[in-house]
């Protein structure tokens, strides 16, 4: 989780103009991301695009719809990487009454594992790059 947060923050800093964020915002403010029980080294990589979106949202006062969920690793260049457990994450999103989930394009092959009734009710958006 810690590494995902660092990558998300560094990606945002590198692309601050694209997101409408003044670079001085980073030197004038401390950014603290609290993730209880996120200290297990393997936990958290799939939270990359969600962490990136949350930080951008906080820095720009742009809200993200509560009906959207997202999962995917992010690289320093903004590529969205494959995740594990897509079926379980989609079921959890559906139970949480989300309407849309954003997932890595690399996981397109895993969509067939999601129960058909959930596939019908969830809009699934595939992305390769964060900008998408």
From TrEMBL:
GO terms for molecular function: ATP binding; ATP-dependent peptidase activity; serine-type endopeptidase activity. Keywords: Hydrolase, Protease, Serine protease. Residues 1-132 form the Lon proteolytic domain. It comes from the Eukaryota. It holds the Pfam family Lon_C. GO terms for biological process: protein catabolic process; proteolysis. The active site is at 46, 89. Belongs to the peptidase S16 family. This is Lon proteolytic domain-containing protein. It comes from Modicella reniformis. The lineage of its organism: Eukaryota, Fungi, Fungi incertae sedis, Mucoromycota, Mortierellomycotina.
């Amino acid at each position: 989780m810690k590494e995902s947060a660092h990558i998300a923050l560094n990606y945002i800093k590198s692309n601050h103009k694209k997101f409408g964020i003044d670079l001085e915002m980073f030197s004038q403010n401390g950014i603290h991301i609290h993730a209880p029980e996120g200290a297990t080294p393997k936990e958290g990589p799939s939270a990359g695009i969600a962490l990136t979106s949350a930080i951008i949202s906080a820095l720009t006062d742009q809200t993200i719809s509560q009906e959207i969920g997202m999962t995917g690793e992010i690289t320093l260049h903004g590529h969205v990487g494959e995740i594990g457990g897509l079926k379980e994450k989609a079921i959890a999103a559906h139970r949480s009454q989300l309407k849309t989930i954003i997932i890595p394009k690399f996981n397109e092959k895993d969509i067939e594992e999601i129960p058909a009734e959930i596939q019908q009710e969830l809009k699934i958006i595939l992305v390769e790059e964060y900008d998408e």
